[in-house]
């Protein structure tokens, strides 16, 4: 029996999986709402991106500059323009051929002021464990004696002005719900009768009894592993996906979830097979993303590490490490990282450690601690519950084989314990590495980036090619990044700092009462260079660095006298000498081109299509400035002046090519140069029609005499420079009207390309086959 025509779904009606050609990250905030993003759409479409990647858009704590402190999952944030503003942005984007990707935050919510903005948490505090919202949060009621510890007071409770006012308890601007039937009690009895206990913020370190985001007590963990909680917290986002407003999702801090794989399978089923989904997952150097996860890939920190590393000279890093050890007395990376892990676990995460130790029992408690410290990657997963063998071995040498075997058995048979162990491990890795060891150990600061390996930051050309080939084969739709809202230094700052691996002598002549700070200040100043407000921006970043390093001061125990001296290390901006500056230009353009042309979906951070020098947040979250006039001038025939305009011309040319000819960006084939300087050429073909060439370690190349006849054998065909980039005819800027752009017989190559000619004007090249 034939079906009615309306019920038959043709193959063409089924939505195809979305694969952005590229994404452009916009940091939304009250000062840059949906309307501002909408105004930027024509420029971003002209730049060549295919999708706008928006920071979190759901209701957040009032005034939030980032949106990761969600208060209500059912509402689009009013301060950004609400749902009408978001839908208007989506409509304008679609009219210009662009889609939207949303950053979503499943792991945690805000503990905001006023607290009632988080209604689920408000109801739990009012009704206790019997509240229908109690399932939303990981609260250990037994550990808290039946109360949730709220570390919100500036000092001991007896020194703080707490008072009852009707049905609420007030403390300054904050208010808390009173348990039914307790209004009218005297204050001591009133406090004892509540489902929560207001406490001095310092108590969070040892007595907190709810899961949080890392060590931030005003971000409470959410149990999205519960199907009802998942449905409630994702309904609005999934509605936007179903309505076609949103085509992709970035999942923030997936390692914070109890079971990331289960969560992602549920999300995929709800969002549909067409939605592009990437996860913020920090992979170790040898770690691989689980093929069982139904995602396009990661957000791209693994690519960042490889791109940075291939422009890092291993010999120079070794020399910088020797100098750093002598000058600062800081031990080598492995010892520093281990010491920071132990400090953070027994200090900042003492409450989380205590919860695990109570679950394991006193005999196994030391083994729990040692196994957490020894874990080599962020965490284990339920689909692969067996603990890492190297972690078991290291822990056994410290806590004894029998105790470690007991913890292993507990991890394999107790899913609740295993989930909390994994969540604690992820928080420990992030806080001890990214937020402490990376600030404490800094021979080369460009290597101290999320997903990086400061102990071995250099990446060989062979390793880079192997990574890219694997990406093209296994995860061709994965995200790639160089700068994000979380990077400690933007890519262009790192491009300048990494020159030090080729010129360690630029660190000569350091002095200061704090050698580690003096070293950090010199490298950061060279990375930032002469930019607007360089001194105050540098001073702010250095203050954050010393607090995170926790050698002399910290966020929780500041040394005011020490901190008063920190701005003295940021007295003036520094710039690189001419030859080093040229090497920084080669790094800047080379890193940009590799990122844009390698396998994966490249993301351009707001403003980073031109030279973008930014330090750690909040410096890197300043409102975006879009170089629309410069791009229009380049399109009209202006010759790029300086690295910023060169980067803009390169970025626009490759983004437009990715958008207009996506078939060129299939596959990956390494190309090997021949000649005395072959190691300084990194080249590959993406398809039979596209070749990419960059110069690596150019400072050392110049010192050795340049290319000296080195050539690059090309795939069959006639090749010419990508339109929009200078034809490498050897003519300097300013002669005969400047360099020629586009393709011509005079600038074509066949068989081999002489690198001195190909890279005469720019240290990078993009070639298209003539057919």
Task: Explain this structure.
The protein is an alpha/beta fold and 771 residues long. The protein is 39% helix and 15% strand. It has 25 helices and 24 strands. The strands form six sheets. Strands 16-15-14-5-2-1-18-17 form an eight-stranded parallel β-sheet. A six-stranded antiparallel β-sheet has the order 19-20-21-24-22-23. A hairpin with a 2-residue loop joins strand 9 and strand 10. Helix 8 runs antiparallel to helix 16. The longest helix has 26 residues, at 415-440. The relative contact order is 0.08.
Distance between the termini: 51 Å
Strand content: 5-15%
Radius of gyration computed on alpha carbons: 27 Å
Counting DSSP H or I runs of 4 or more residues, the number of helices is 25
